[in-house]
Queue: 2 jobs
Job 1
Amino acid sequence: MANDKLVIFDTTLRDGEQSPGFSMNTEEKLVLARQLAALGVDIIEAGFPIASDDDAHAVALISTEIRGPVIAALSRCNPADIQRAGESLAPAERSRIHTFIATSDLHLERKLRITREQCLEALIAAVRQARGYTDDVEFSAEDATRTDMDFMCQVVETAIDMGATTINLPDTVGYSTPEEIAEFFGEVRGRVPNADKAVFSAHCHDDLGLAVANSLAAVSAGVRQIECTINGIGERAGNASLEEIVMATKVRPDRLPYDTGVRTQELFRTSQLLTEITSEAVQANKAIVGRNAFAHEAGIHQDGVIKDRRTYEIMRPEDIGVESTLVLGKHSGRHAVKRRCEQIGYDLSRFELDRVYRTIIDLADRQKHIDDDDVTRIIESTRAELARTETAARPA
Ligand code: KIV
Ligand code: ZN
């Protein structure tokens, strides 16, 4: 039996882009959108057109050029937002209007200062108006996981009745835990009579570092769309990281039997492109795309990987588009040094290897990173020195 499809909704250009340090100009957004299409995401949320003329322009440009993924645009539940989103998306081959309103009492009373009835009226009008532009309408209940359950069910049933085809219930402030969010989606889907008429979606923030775990727990409760971003960028601590979600399903199909359709070999390139565009590096030990994610420095680990990579690698670096790196440092073993020398084209005698190995370990005490140029220099000078000693020792 085929695995269930898990829809990947990428919001790097919207939720990601709106966080400090990650803003992009229109040309940069277009470049990233091309790469997201090459990566094979299902939906690209290209922006929030009412936010600025630049945002609207970027959404229109991406809608004009990008083919393959659905192009989505965000709008609040009000007529001007929806009109702007609908117009910006007009050139798209396939478009989605993503309209949202907060539903928790905290947000309704303290932020929006409206009643639950007014919230329902706004969402009814918004979904109806959005359907005038496209059949593909997503409704999001901001701060869903802190919303009263009876009201949550009423909101979801109403949005589906009005024609929303995707229901996104965000953990806007990253407050949920995995068990809790699975129960939450299970209860909503169980209680809402027309739940089978929509795809349910999770949008988890990472304030407690649980965004990926929460998203995957939501999938276990019937959610079939995950909203996520490259490198996990997004408001505050960020959103669920796309590469972690995708690779979790690829590496553990026994536990997560879902197909994302993402070309995983493009993951590293996409991550790198985003860091180049924004000049914001990912942490070295970030799962999947961090500099150290496939780097082995400890001698025991390097020895294991050389003998059988599965000893310390649960996924193949090339599946993400990364070359495996045995990092040379003071913890490296002789095997790793020999392998690196071979990789850069030197076949050393045992005697040469002994010398080279000792020089590298010495250097590693003083210098953090040892690159291929260092290794080449060490080999060449070792060989030159050995040749000199041999000549000096030869009888005249
Ligand atoms: O975090 C959130 O609630 C959002 C919505 C606008 C979808 O980003
Ligand atoms: Zn968000």
Job 2
Amino acid sequence: MTAKVTVIDHPLILHKLTLMRQTTTSTAKFRNLLKEIGMLLAYEVTRDLPLKYEDIETPIAPMLAPMLAAEKKMVIVSIMRAGQGILDGILELMPSARVGHIGLYRDPTTHVAIEYYFKFPHDIEQRDVLIVDPMLATGNSAVAAVDRIKEVNPVSIKFLCLLAAPEGIAHFQEQHPDVPIYTAAIDDYLDEHGYIVPGLGDAGDRLYGTK
Ligand code: URA
């Protein structure tokens, strides 16, 4: 079994992604674009949410109407810090979603993910989880985040990013063949510093203007 990769290549998303890639795009613009794309990606990732039917009254007539079936709201887990940018967009679309955070940084030489923070809703085992991080590069952070989330045994796990490298997808699929990946694009390769090529640079730095 290999995790399915869904490329959400909607024209609006691809146009906004191109703007994000450009060196000349300002921090404010980059942040806003990531939020907008987060919203559009969430729309597609939640396409398979189960529905239930309830009797309601419109001003005109009674009807049997669809509503989300899950008893418990979904948990969006943001991999800090760049995950925050996508999270903000998703919360615009799903304001009642619960939120978890996992803090991971990449050791600059080994590129291994090191955890420094983890906080999530106490009843996560009754909820669906969507883990978000803009960049699936080496895959180390994504794999570490899923390892950690699996310890608390949620109903389901999906992983959502903006850009993926083939190397990151392969590593992730090897470690977590049961977790589907959603991305807006798959780029060419990783460079020797672990950056996605052509990519968009360091997503965290561009989001927060730290470089
Ligand atoms: N993280 C980033 O922010 N950018 C990359 O290209 C790879 C990892």
